[in-house]
Amino acid sequence: MRRPVRRSELLVGMLARIFPDAALDKHRSEFEKLLVSVNANFPGLLEGMRLTRAREKRELRSRGLPESTIGAVSIGDARFEEAVHLFGAKLMMALFYRHTGSILPLVGGMPFRWFTNAQDLDEMLPRDVLSPLLGQFAELKRENTSLRDQFFYRFAVADNRRAAAFLAFFNQAIVMLGFVFSDITTVTIPANAKVLRAYSPLL
Prior knowledge:
Strand 2 and strand 3 (151-157) form a beta hairpin. The chain has one domain. It is of the alpha+beta class. Strands 2-3-4-5-1-6 form a six-stranded antiparallel β-sheet, covered by helices on one side. It contains seven helices and six strands. It has helices at residues 3-15, 25-41, 45-49, 53-62, 78-100, 121-124, 127-133; strands at 109-116, 141-144, 151-157, 163-170, 174-181, 195-197. It starts with a helix and ends in a 6-residue tail after the last strand.
């Protein structure tokens, strides 16, 4: 496994632990060790996540959350987006292989979105938006994992097994949505959609 992917897993691992119960004693020690590693591998990133209390209140108000809520952070650093895209591509390809038995070919591609617990998932992914995207798939099924509540996902596979959809949940922190196509050139993709390609040089 190459270094960029290992680094992306480290950063996504930190993001996945920023959730309401993360301050509990049983999570704190592990989280603190993770922060040390993140600080060593991503200089300046943790400092950039800090918000002034005034800005924190503005962010909370803009999302309809009580101003008394504590713990809001900024993830505006471009390294977050890069890490999530690297990690997301690897995850989507692995899930595609697991559920179709096929390795995603070079012409494959993955329209991809991700969300944090600062966003309202129902608002970001309303049913009237998801329905057309899922038109060729059966109903999304839940797949539990050995990590239980820390990670689970919903999935659907097209009848021809050349396309699949995955909605992955990490704690109460982040959600990743990917549509995986064996040949992305045959699919009409919205102009503003982010498409992850199979076998990026960084993977």
